[in-house]
Amino acid sequence: MNKTQPSPPCFLPVEEKINRVCMRLPCADRQHVVLTQLFKHIHGRLHERMNVVLREHNVNPVSFTALTMLYSAPDTVLNPSDLADSTGESRANVTRICDELVARGLLSREPNAEDRRRIDLRLAPDGSALVEALLPTLQSRVHSTYNVLNTKEKEQLERLMKKVLGALDQ
């Protein structure tokens, strides 16, 4: 018995194309392709929802994530490598993001107190204020997405997503 959820209308054209590929290439694992495309589409849609709010403040989701990670850090300080790890972005992209945020006065670069060769990133007061102003709105906008799930389903989704993410790290 197939217990999968019917596809929402926005995903039907994608699923039809996947089905055609799998008919032409029987070696393609349809379910894996569907799952991968679902992750991609959900990620994109969540970013679209965030962008509605962030665009008004000339911030993109990746930059806001960086600001939020700094906001959560002890003394609002992280080194660039830790920021890259916590945002899931490449070090090169973190450098570019930080250049933009420094230019806007939302964070600063400072020499590390213990190792002068290292640089620390410190969230500026304007960066903290931006996170505090936007986070509640973003949470209500993005998190309303998950209202279609009950508590047990959310816990299960979180567990399964962590399991898949862990497999990607192996």
TrEMBL record:
Name its GO BP terms in alphabetical order. Answer: response to stress
Pfam families, sorted: MarR_2
Gene3D superfamilies given in the database record? Winged helix-like DNA-binding domain superfamily/Winged helix DNA-binding domain
Top-level taxon in the UniProt lineage: Bacteria
Limits of the HTH marR-type domain: 32-166
Looking up SMART domains in the UniProt record yields: HTH_MARR (SM00347)
Q: Name the SUPFAM superfamilies for this protein.
A: Winged helix' DNA-binding domain
Q: Name one GO molecular function term.
A: DNA-binding transcription factor activity
Q: What is this protein identified as?
A: MarR family transcriptional regulator
Give the organism, scientific name: Chitiniphilus eburneus
